[in-house]
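User: ok so my PI wants both of these folded by tonight, can you help

Assistant: No problem, let's get them done. Here's the first:
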Amino acid sequence: MKRFFSIASVFTLACSSFTVNAETINYYVIAKQAAPFQIENNAGNHSGIVTDIVRAIFKDSQYELDYHTYPFNRMISLLEAGGKPNWITYGSPGWGSVQAENLSDIPIYNVKHVLVSSHKNTFSFKTMDDLTDKVVVVLHGFDYPQLAPYFNSGQVEELRVKDYSAAFRVIKKLPGDTTFVEMESRVKYNLNKKNEDLSKFDLQPFSSVIPDYPVYLAFDPKMDSEIQNFINSKLKELKTSGRISQIINSYH
């Protein structure tokens, strides 16, 4: 009996030691607007392209993920103020601020933007002149420097909406007069998620105005170098093995 308690005690101490020594990675998630990159349901369950990649990186490692979910602007403010130690989210060089300051060695995704409009009253987009006097719908919190001159000059009218449901409602209500600018992957995901009839919408490439660009993991500028090296190493393994492609395809 004594031997049993001795073994049990050693096991308990070993588990306690692992818990104490496990390092926390603070993963920041954008609430509601980031699907399919980051998805959180009402039960607090997390998924999405970026989330699944981050989970794969730290699976069976000495690191533990701690999730922090905030509206976009609030999240950026917190990270600019320093955030919690060794934080991670996603970003791109063109986004500026903390989402561009310290990025992973390799990208995880390539972003394409599209124009979404109603199929009831179609139009062909070739140049920004084709959008003259139209209303361009964009989501709150997302700025597009390439569009700013056209908004400022009044050539096209800017309409900010809070979510995808609102954007799709505007397009359906004002066919031919409105178009929605957004990432192709997010548009397709949300159209499917909201059970919209895809045949009622037209998606046109918008890369001539907003060029395609890569998305990376974004790190705390003060992240421990050992942790950052670990992440970059695992990311390369996931890329080489095809796991990243599998994750991306599961949301398309």
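One down. Here's the second:
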Amino acid sequence: MKTIGFIGAGNMATAIVKGLLAQDYPGDRILVFDLCDEKLDYMRSLGVKTAEGVRSAAESSDIIVLAVKPQNYPEVLEELKPVADLNKTVVSIAAGISIAYVRTALGCDCPVVRVMPNTPLLLKKGASALCPSENISEEDKALVHRMFAGSGVCEYIEEAHMNEIIAVNGSSPAYIYLFAKSMAEYAESCGIDYGKAMNLICATLEGSAKMLRESGDSADTLIQKVSSKGGTTIAALDRLYAHDFSGIIKEAMQACTDRAEELGK
């Protein structure tokens, strides 16, 4: 069985590790390195092994997961460079970091999987976009898919769209949180308990997602089914349309994509 090494032990790495353990992946085949001793102690408490450094973690791993921030990639990849080879698959979960960027920094055309997960992975409700390089083995491709599918939904996306997909699933939980927060604040301003309102809002978001996925209706049809002519929903929608709600969302998503492009340079 292959050893999976994690460089970084933050929230994403923790979610992926827990997802693997929940699928009975052996803890002694999971290796983690982080600069923070407390994080390493926590990882050991989960039953996985820890490494003393980036290079030692990579040397002992078949699949190397780079779970660090984009701005830390140059130094981490420099440390990995001496041990990179075609038999090791590198998994990158940082926004804007391309397959070519990783390979160039490593000086090796090793297999690379570019992944854009999101934070609901922590609750096994993640949404992850995957893009494997052309030279990855079917075994490694399946194993990387398993790493993320164990904590949510996965879709394969062409690399040409991996910066754009960040706005779709990577950053989008923040938009949804802002939307929910605004709704709850309105309720509170009307004298409704904030917690009770948020509970109803969360249930509404969950139910609406289920309708989008399972009803068989398009988003437009579902909107129409809630909107009676001259009713309350139309009054709200008319105000959103007047302020170009869809256009604002698309502008925000484009800003997200533009920033991803900047990070990858």
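The CA atoms of residues 70 and 94 lie 5 Å apart. The first helix runs from residue 11 to 22. Good luck tonight!
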